[in-house]
């Protein structure tokens, strides 16, 4: 029996013992022909007010047929209390579930498979998948045997919302640094023959589209890695004692070049269920993307379109991906690159190193990469000796922990912050300076004049989401689904959109006046809508639990990012090296 199965049995045993002490729960009933549905959620007073409106609207709509009873639970203890109740007999019929828990809950048997309910719904709030952002349903799909999340895998919840990430920036700090902000899409910049860089300083002191002199920042265009560094340094020099930039997530860096910390490898090995996970956080193999203007290419029989990165399994040249030797690049990819149909991008290891450099002092060694590639010049950011030093533009985790990242930004201690849409309310309430948002970073190589992008990674980052699940033990499944569907429908999403703390899951609602026309910041709110098209869940979602992350992530966010451990030593640490064995347990028979 695998460790994963042992873990599930252990959880069930603990929950069974806890349920003895749980209250009677909320039960379900039918009064005078009206089916009652018990619904649990969490949230601040504003969210409770919104969901009270949703419940009241639903109850009025289905008066005489369905009635929802809404219970708001404290967010801090919600997950623990919910697990106890779901393990018992009388848990809620409908409940909030974060996307990062959906695989765990479905594995434990606590969620109802909604696939057929969605397909066969006859309610007038029937979900229109064609109007949804393309990747939002996939985060609630999961096959508990193969551990995949494909389009035809079971659906365990309908999405309540999506909260993408963006770069929050302090407009007052930008003004102090002599930086003028404009909002012009890249397509328009190209049409006018202007630079397509996120920031631009014309050596002749003139910016074509505006006539402005000096530094210009375009909040419609993604910064490159280098631009983020340069801009941060300028902001710090004009805003004494302030940090330039902060992100606690490496995802944007690795995903933009086609890397990841885990890669799913299909296998015929009889010891595993169809696939096996490879730990690739420090994968040194270069990544490849289909060049702009190339319609498509084929690798290993799979078609890739312009702007798509070649998958890990397709780019390597060996089936023995779990051996000690680093695999090379397969011949198909090499030939396509030589023919000018692919661009080469940094490796996952290079991207991860770039992330770690943010918080280190410029005198601190982050790593030495002399032996990674034949030439140290091939490793992004390495000097002639293979040394990688820090950037000193970001507070380390210890420094920022007292305020929290959002508080650090609203108190004016950092000029740019990567955060999710869910923090907008807090920023609106506490920010004294002017502020706005810009797109996430994107790996880029520019032409010398900045008027064209020579090599471009893909837009990539993570977003948060909460789903609406139905208790597999519910006695009123049809009524429960009707309510869940109502929350996810355009009508339910419109009620949520009025509050503006998350992006509605329908494109039509997200682009409607009810969401966009707000007098409050951010003015550039469309950036969040754009982000919904490409952002996916974080690494905590990849498998049915996130315990495989805990040990190495704690070391990363402690000794490594605080400057007390080289990355090379991190990769050799027990916390890191044991991870592959833990990953094997997820698909081992």
Net shape: globular
Mean pLDDT: 91
Radius of gyration: 25 Å
Q: What's the N-to-C terminus distance?
A: 8 Å
Low-confidence stretches: 1-27
Number of helices: 24
Number of strands: 24
**Main sheet?**
6 strands, mixed
- Which percent range describes the beta-strand content? 15-25%
Structural class: alpha+beta
> Helix proportion of residues, in percent?
25-40%
Key attributes of the depicted protein:
33% helix, five-stranded mixed sheet, six-stranded mixed sheet, single chain, 589 residues, 24 helices, alpha+beta
Provide an overview of this structure.
With 589 residues, the protein is α+β, with helices and mostly antiparallel strands. Helices cover 33% and strands 18% of the residues. Strands 1, 2, 3, 4, 5 and 24 form a six-stranded mixed beta sheet that branches. Strands 6, 10, 19, 20 and 23 form a five-stranded mixed beta sheet that branches. Helix 1 crosses helix 3 (78-87). The protein is globular, with a radius of gyration of 25 Å. It starts with a helix and ends in a 5-residue tail after the last helix. Residues 1-27 have low confidence and may be disordered.
């Amino acid at each position: 029996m695998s460790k994963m199965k042992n873990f599930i049995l252990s959880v069930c045993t603990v929950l069974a013992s806890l349920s003895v002490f749980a209250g009677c729960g909320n039960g379900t009933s039918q009064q005078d022909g009206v089916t009652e549905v018990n619904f649990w959620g969490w949230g601040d007073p504003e969210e409770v007010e919104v969901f009270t409106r949703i419940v009241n609207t639903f109850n009025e709509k289905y008066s005489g047929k369905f009635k929802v009873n809404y219970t708001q639970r404290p967010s801090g203890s919600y997950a623990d209390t919910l697990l106890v109740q779901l393990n018992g007999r009388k848990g809620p019929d409908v409940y909030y579930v974060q996307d990062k828990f959906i695989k765990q809950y479905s594995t434990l048997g606590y969620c109802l498979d909604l696939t057929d309910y969605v397909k066969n719904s006859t309610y007038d709030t029937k979900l229109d998948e064609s109007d949804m952002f393309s990747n939002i349903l996939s985060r609630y799909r999961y096959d508990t045997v193969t551990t995949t999340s494909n389009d035809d895998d079971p659906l365990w919840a309908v999405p309540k919302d999506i909260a993408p990430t963006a770069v929050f920036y302090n407009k007052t700090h930008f003004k102090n640094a002599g930086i003028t902000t404009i909002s012009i899409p890249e397509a328009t910049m190209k049409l006018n023959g202007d630079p397509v860089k996120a920031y631009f300083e014309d050596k002749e002191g003139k910016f074509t589209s505006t006539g402005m002199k000096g530094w210009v920042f375009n909040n419609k265009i993604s910064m490159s890695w280098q631009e983020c560094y340069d801009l941060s340094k300028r902001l710090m020099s004009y805003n004494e004692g302030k940090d330039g930039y902060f992100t606690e997530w490496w995802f944007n860096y690795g995903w933009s070049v086609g890397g990841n910390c885990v890669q799913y490898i299909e296998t015929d090995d009889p010891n595993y269920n169809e696939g096996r996970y490879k730990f690739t956080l420090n994968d040194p193999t270069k990544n490849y993307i289909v060049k702009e203007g190339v319609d498509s290419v084929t690798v290993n029989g799979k078609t890739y379109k312009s702007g798509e990165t070649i998958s890990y399994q397709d780019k390597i040249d060996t089936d023995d991906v779990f051996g000690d030797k680093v695999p090379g690049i397969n011949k198909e990819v090499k030939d396509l690159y030589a023919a000018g149909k692919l661009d080469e991008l940094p490796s996952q290891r290079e991207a991860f190193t770039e992330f770690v450099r943010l918080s280190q002092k410029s005198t601190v060694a982050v790593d030495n990469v002399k032996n990674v590639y034949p030439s140290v010049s091939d490793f992004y950011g390495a000097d002639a000796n293979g040394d990688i030093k820090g950037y000193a533009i970001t507070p380390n985790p210890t420094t920022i922990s007292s305020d929290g990242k959002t508080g650090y930004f609203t108190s004016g201690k950092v000029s740019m912050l990567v955060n999710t849409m869910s923090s907008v309310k807090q920023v609106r309430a506490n920010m004294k300076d002017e502020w706005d948002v810009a797109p996430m970073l994107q790996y880029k190589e520019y032409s010398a004049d900045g008027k064209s992008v020579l090599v471009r990674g893909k837009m990539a980052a993570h977003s948060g989401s909460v789903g609406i699940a139905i208790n597999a033990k519910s006695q009123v499944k049809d009524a429960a689904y009707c309510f869940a569907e109502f929350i996810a429908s355009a009508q339910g999403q419109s009620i949520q959109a009025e509050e503006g703390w998350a992006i509605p899951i329908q494109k039509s609602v997200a682009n409607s006046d009810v969401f966009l026309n707000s007098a409050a910041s951010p003015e550039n709110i469309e950036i969040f809508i754009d982000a919904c098209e490409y952002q996916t869940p974080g690494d905590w979602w990849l498998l049915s639990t996130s315990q495989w992350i805990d040990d190495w992530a704690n070391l990363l966010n402690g000794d490594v990012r605080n400057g007390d451990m080289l990355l090379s030593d991190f990769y050799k640490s027990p916390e890191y090296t044991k991870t592959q064995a833990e990953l094997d347990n997820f698909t081992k028979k």
